[in-house]
Structure formats: structure tokens, C-alpha cells
UniProtKB/TrEMBL annotation, chains A, B:
Biological or metabolic pathway of the protein: Amino-acid degradation; L-kynurenine degradation; L-alanine and anthranilate from L-kynurenine: step 1/1; Cofactor biosynthesis; NAD(+) biosynthesis; quinolinate from L-kynurenine: step 2/3
Name of this protein: Kynureninase
Organism, as annotated: Tersicoccus phoenicis
Function summary: Catalyzes the cleavage of L-kynurenine (L-Kyn) and L-3-hydroxykynurenine (L-3OHKyn) into anthranilic acid (AA) and 3-hydroxyanthranilic acid (3-OHAA), respectively.
Catalytic activity: L-kynurenine + H2O = anthranilate + L-alanine + H(+); 3-hydroxy-L-kynurenine + H2O = 3-hydroxyanthranilate + L-alanine + H(+)
One MF annotation (Gene Ontology) recorded for this entry: kynureninase activity
EC id: 3.7.1.3
Keyword DNA-binding: no
GO cellular component, as recorded: cytoplasm
Class of the enzyme per the UniProt entry, highest EC level: hydrolase
Keywords: Hydrolase, Pyridine nucleotide biosynthesis, Pyridoxal phosphate
Any Pfam family matching the protein: KYNU_C
Matching InterPro entries: Kynureninase (IPR010111), PyrdxlP-dep_Trfase (IPR015424), PyrdxlP-dep_Trfase_major (IPR015421), PyrdxlP-dep_Trfase_small (IPR015422)
């Protein structure tokens, strides 16, 4: 646990009783420099038809809305949509996917302007960039590079899209089998890449285990073999620094409804390094990717820069929450967000070790905070039943097959007290 | 002009002066049974930084928001998102694309349940359904059916996506050249379809001319040759009856931010006839199209029904306005909406003939109301300059290259007075 997050020097030996855990959580919240951010969110503790939420530990699946987003959506409906009407496309919305992409790239991804764009779902954006990369790599290698390296613990959409594209483009899937409680290592990547490798597709933070991949080393390993790398940033964007430019990443995609606060089904983002943009072609050649969309000419001519990776009309409502969240992350600093994610994770692990291990609960996420994203997954044979019980009581973690409770730690909205509430209750339920 | 819309029996001979036109518009508004619907929309006549809109004639490009949508979005942020949080996926959002698709199908498209789904942009939805249809037709014909029939006046995204898919799938584009002021006829389709035709891709209402294609006859012509037909309903959904089931349509796509009020970049819809669903496969195999998304299993298994045509996480915010608009259309009846669209169009044509023709303005949309959608395009050599001037004054029609002003007639929100304001001002500017 980092010094700037707490002045106490806790070990799991201390965290053996509900009282101590609750007191510790209160002390950590009092010391938390980001604690005030919680007041910026729409209150989660009461609505008609719902049990009030007392502990929300699923901000890594659906982030809570900021009050600013409620206001922004209201103003959008009344203003830019309701009275600006069609004029707002010219005035702001045509540029929005690029402007907001650049802001996201700057604040959260370590990407210089002109490389990040907002649009589509993560699945569709992934399809487009992976398709483009596979076609390009085959072409420049004289047909030699056809291998697509991925891992069996990657998020389903990544695996399914990869498999379909491999079928469609006659590529070959090369599977890595990571430790389910850990993740893909640079050594595993080095062992499989070579002169046939076209693309390496991996998640920065594993959606189950929270394993934080060694992005710099794996990117370098892929490049060493002449491959491109496509990183899925769904579980890192907005909470863990990425350093896309610094580490020479080629391509990335990610979703915005987790730590980026875009709301349910908000659009994804895509990143393509400037050096590659003109060589890659989206398979979905929509009018918004055209160099001059409103000329409506006879033939498609791909736009320059990130425009060519846009297909349809940008989803403006879904960008409101992203904008507010990026503003807030910039305001407090991504490093403070990451530090609190780490500290919350250490607290979870301390409580599991001190209190819950005697009930048979195990941590199945990395214990090394340098290799862990912003959630901690715990396992117990009764996890499915536990999670149902907890939801019924307004304690809301996530559940992931086959038997893990995933505790999402969204640093801007999650308190130590919420963590304590959830874990102490799990202890009671397992008694 | 239909009897139920006006008791006056106007001809263009009457509509020769600004005063008569304004008085006529006032009389028509007073008689309009849908006039009260205008009060249901967010007022468009004032916002900081914008010239107040006095005539909005671009509801066929971006529909105005309903006040109910402002409320629904507010409640969504406070309620289902802000306090329901992740639980709302189980409780309502997972089903929303299907439930709302069914509602849209019922009220606006003539589609029985289980055939319409909301998702993606129109471009992406078109890509998926067209890809699926081309692959299927080739397979069942032993490789013979490779022709994709389309027309040169179709919306750019349709032409661009068709061209890319023809390249990717080794299909052959067969172009129809329609009358630019009219559109594709059944005869033109019959002349080109045959044993090699895989798919006929056309717009129900042409985006420039407003030509309303003879959907039943063209669909029958395609079927007569063993082809599938994919209709783009962007400019008819919500304003012109479609009759998808009645006319045995195979596939359709459309957008929701025009007459369906979804807001800027709201998700598209897709329709696949029940009889075809299990034979077609989406090229974009995202987790949300899986038979059991949350099993997160190793291999993709396409869901049944429309689920298999869903890719990523549904865009919930963008569905709010669609829901309210479908509710309103159901309330007043689609036939009343269509009747007012026709009547508004007749009024436009009457004024152009009576007042503007002497300034050299021509109608380049069908004069036959039975072959016209819900906009009227007028042409004049100075259209581009006119449209800029009008926008600056808060009179907002659309402009489409090479030289047409498109007057969008959204029956729920457009008044005859707005039409009069715009056309009288055009007359003044052309003096």
C-alpha cells in the first residue's frame, strides 16, 4: 500500500475482525485525497424499485454516472440537439469523435493527437482494426504473415472476432494458455511469434484475473518478430496508465462504459499509430470515413488520419459521460487514480487474507500490485450463490464464470467502506 | 391534398403571394389534427449561441427531441443507470434492443415480433446484413449468385459498403441508373435480375429526390429471380408505412435519428425475416450475439433469432428517443403521420408552383404523392448560397449536392407555417 494513500502500516494480521476492518476502512477513506470525488456522482443509494446499493463494486463493468453528465445530457437535449438541431453537426459533433478521442488519448492513454477516435462498439472497432491489420500484414509480407496470436483467457468478443476473421481471411490462430489467475507473459509471447506472425491481440488488463500485462515488453517482443500488436484496453483505460506512444504500440481498442463513465453501451475508442494509418483500410467503408462525406461522390475514398476508421454517424449522447470522466481524471491526475486503485486492491487482499481465507476464500488476482489492474477476483465454491445473495441486499460485485466474484475498484467512486461492507458481509454469509 | 387534412381546395393558382401563402398555412395548421404534437417537442426557438430557429425543415436529417425524451434520459441517468447500475442489464437493458425493435416493427414497419433489432450504426448494420446475405446466396446457389444490384442514386454509405463487400466477397456490382428526380422502378429491377442475382439493395425513399420505391413490386421482382432484397428504410421509417411482412421483405436496415427521434448518432435497426434468420451469419461475431453471452465460452455459437445479428453492448442512451417517438406514432397512428407528410408535401409543391417557379425554382421530387416520401427537394442554381443565407437567419432546410435544397417534412413537429416561412423567404432572397 502506497505511503501517499495511508499513513497506517496495515498487514493482513490486523484485518481479522469486522470491527477492525470497518475502522481501517474509515481511516483510509478519511486519508483518501480522492474521497471527495464520490460526491460528484449521482447518488447510488436509492431509487424506486431497487434495493438501495450500499456497496457498488462493479464500476469496472458499468461505471457510475457523474452529476456533470446528468447536466451535460440535459443541456445537450435542450441545447445542441433541441435548438442547435442539424447545425450542431457542423458546429461541434462532426469533430467530436476526434476531439474527444484526442482528449482521451492525452489524459488516459499516452497518445498524441490524431491517433484516437470514438465510435462503434468495442466489438465492431476491434473487428475493423484487426481486419485492417491482418490484411496489411499479409500484403507487406508477400502472404507469409498469417498468424494471429491471442490467449484463451482473453475476453470472449476478442476471441470470437479473432476466430471469425481468421476464418474469413484465412489466417491461423495461435493460442497462448496463460495462468488463469495470472496472464500472458512476455516469455509466452516470445515463444510463439516469428516470421509468420501478423498480429498479437491481447488485453492490457485481463477481465477475469486483473493481470496487468507487461505491455512494453510484449509490444517489443511482437515488434522483434515483425508483428503488429493490438491491445484491448477495456479494463485499463481511465484507471491504469497505458503509454501507447511511449511503448510504440500499433493498435488499440477499448470500451468507455467502465472506468470512462460513458454509460450503458457508450461507444468504444480505437487507436492507430500515425505511422500506420495510411497503410490500413477499414473493411466497413461508411460515409463518415470518406475523405469528403458530404460530397456524397460515386466512389469511396478513405479519409486521412483516424477518419478512415469511422463508419457511421457518431453516437453523440454516448460521448457525454466520457467527456466528463476524462475531465475529472485530468483534474485529479491519472497517477492518483491508479494509486488509489492499487491501494483499494491491497485493502481487498488484506481483508481476504485476514478474514476470509479462513472461510476458504482465495485471491485469484495477482498479489503484485505492479501486475494488477483495478479489480480483484476472489474464488470460493459458493461464489455464485453468494453473489446472488449480495445483489439482493444491495451489495453489488460482479460474478464471472466459473466461480469468481470480481470486485471492481473504480477509484473515483469506490470507497474503502464499500469494500469493507462487501467483504464483511461475505464473511457473515460464509459462516 | 387529402380531405382529412384540409377543407380548402387549394391549387397553385391561389398560392401566388406571400400573404395568401401565410394565411393558407395558418388555416391548414388550424385544421391539422397533429398540430398539438408540436407542443410535445423541446422548443427549438432559442438557445444561447444560436440564431433562433423559425422554420426547421431538416427533421428528416436530425429529428427534434421530444420533451418526453428529455425526461426519459434524466430518469435513465438518475434511475436505471445511476442507481440500478449493473443490475439494469438483467432487469431491462439486455432485452431492450429486441423489445424496442419489436415495438418499432409493430408500429412503423409492419413487422411481427422477433425480426427487428436495434444496434450499431446504419453503416455497420448494413454491412452485417449485406455480408450475411451475399455469403448465403452464393452458398445455396452453388457459387452462381454473385450479383449485387443497386442504384447510383442510393445513399453513399450503401454504395460504399456494397462496393467494399463486392471486393471482399468477389461479388459483382450491377448498377441501375435511376432518374435523379425520381428513382428506381420495378421495370429497371426486372431488367437486371436473374439467375446470377444474389441481392437487390435499394432505398425505400430516395434520400435526394424523395422517390418512394414500389417496394412490393420490386421485392416480388427480386424474388421472382431468386434474389433476396435488402431495403434501406432510413427515410421512410416512422413516416411512411413499409409493410415488411406483408410484402415478404427479406432484409432491411434503417436509421433512427431522422423521423424516429433517437437523437444524433442514435443506433440503427435491422430486420431479418424469420424464415431467413437461421441461415444467415453475421461477420462480426461479438459476445452479445452469442447464444449465451455470459457463459463466455471458448467458441462462438450464434444466438437464435435476431440475437445473432447483435455484436457489441447495446447503446442504451441512444434508444430513449426512439422509444418515445414510437410511442407517439402509435398514439396518433402512422396513417395520420403519413397523411400529414403528404399534405405538407402538396403544400410545398403548391407554393413552389405558385410563387417560386417564376424565380426559376423547380421541384425535383415526385409530384405524385403516392411516389413521394416525406421531403421535397427543390432546385435552383443559387441553392447553395440560398441555404447558407437561410441558415444564418434561423430557417433550416437541408442542402444536398449538387444543387438541391431538401425540405424535410416531419409531420409530428413541422407546421405549415414553417413551410410558408421558408418558401416566402426564398422568394424574397431570389428577387
Amino acid at each position: 500500500m502506497r505511503a501517499d494513500q495511508t499513513s497506517t502500516d496495515l498487514t493482513s494480521a490486523d484485518l481479522t475482525s469486522a470491527d477492525v476492518i470497518r475502522e481501517t476502512a474509515a481511516r483510509l477513506d478519511a486519508l483518501d485525497r480522492l474521497a471527495g470525488c464520490r460526491d460528484l456522482f449521482v447518488p447510488a443509494d436509492g431509487s424506486p424499485g431497487h434495493v438501495p446499493v450500499t456497496a457498488y463494486l462493479d464500476g469496472n463493468s458499468l461505471g457510475r454516472p457523474l452529476l456533470a453528465t446528468e447536466t451535460r445530457l440535459h443541456e445537450l437535449v435542450r441545447g445542441a440537439w433541441g435548438t442547435g438541431l442539424i447545425r450542431s453537426w457542423d458546429e461541434q459533433w462532426m469533430a467530436l469523435p476526434y476531439r474527444l478521442g484526442d482528449r482521451l488519448g492525452d489524459v488516459c492513454l499516452g497518445a498524441a493527437p490524431g491517433q484516437t477516435v470514438i465510435g462503434d462498439s468495442t466489438t465492431v472497432m476491434l473487428y475493423k482494426l484487426l481486419h485492417a491489420a491482418l490484411v496489411h500484414q499479409r500484403a507487406v509480407s508477400g502472404g507469409r504473415r498469417v498468424d494471429l496470436v491471442l490467449d484463451r483467457e482473453n475476453f470472449p468478443t476478442d476471441r470470437y472476432v479473432a476466430a471469425s476473421l481468421a476464418d474469413a481471411l484465412d489466417a491461423r490462430l495461435v493460442w497462448i494458455d496463460p495462468d488463469p489467475a495470472g496472464g500472458v507473459t512476455p516469455e509466452q509471447v516470445r515463444a510463439v511469434v516469428g516470421g509468420r506472425t501478423a498480429v498479437v491481440l491481447l488485453s492490457h488488463v485481463a477481465y477475469k484475473s486483473a493481470w496487468l500485462a507487461d505491455l512494453p515488453a510484449i509490444t517489443a517482443a511482437a515488434h522483434g518478430a515483425g508483428a503488429l500488436v493490438l491491445w484491448d484496453l477495456c479494463h485499463s483505460a481511465g484507471v491504469i496508465p497505458v503509454g501507447l506512444d511511449e511503448h510504440d504500440v500499433d493498435l488499440a481498442v477499448g470500451c468507455s462504459y467502465k472506468f470512462l463513465g460513458g454509460g450503458p453501451g457508450a461507444p468504444a475508442f480505437g487507436y492507430v499509430a500515425t505511422r500506420l494509418q495510411s497503410d490500413l483500410a477499414s473493411p466497413i467503408t461508411g460515409w463518415m470515413g470518406h475523405a469528403e462525406p458530404f460530397m456524397m461522390g460515386p466512389d469511396y475514398a478513405a479519409g486521412t488520419g483516424m477518419r478512415r476508421f469511422v463508419s457511421g454517424t457518431p453516437a453523440v449522447l454516448g460521448m457525454a459521460g466520457i467527456e466528463d470522466t476524462v475531465d475529472l481524471v485530468e483534474d485529479v491526475g491519472l497517477s492518483a487514480v491508479t494509486a488509489k486503485a492499487t491501494a483499494l486492491g491491497e485493502f481487498v487482499i488484506g481483508v481476504v487474507d485476514g478474514l476470509l481465507s479462513r472461510r476458504g476464500v482465495r485471491v485469484v488476482s495477482p498479489r503484485d500490485p505492479g501486475r494488477r489492474g483495478a479489480h480483484v477476483t476472489i474464488a470460493h465454491p459458493r461464489c455464485r450463490e453468494l453473489y446472488r445473495q449480495l445483489w439482493g441486499e444491495g451489495i453489488v460485485p460482479d460474478f464471472r464464470e466459473p466461480g469468481g466474484i470480481r470486485l471492481g475498484l473504480a477509484p473515483l467512486s469506490t470507497s474503502y467502506a464499500e469494500v469493507a461492507t462487501a467483504l464483511v458481509r461475505i464473511d457473515e454469509l460464509l459462516r
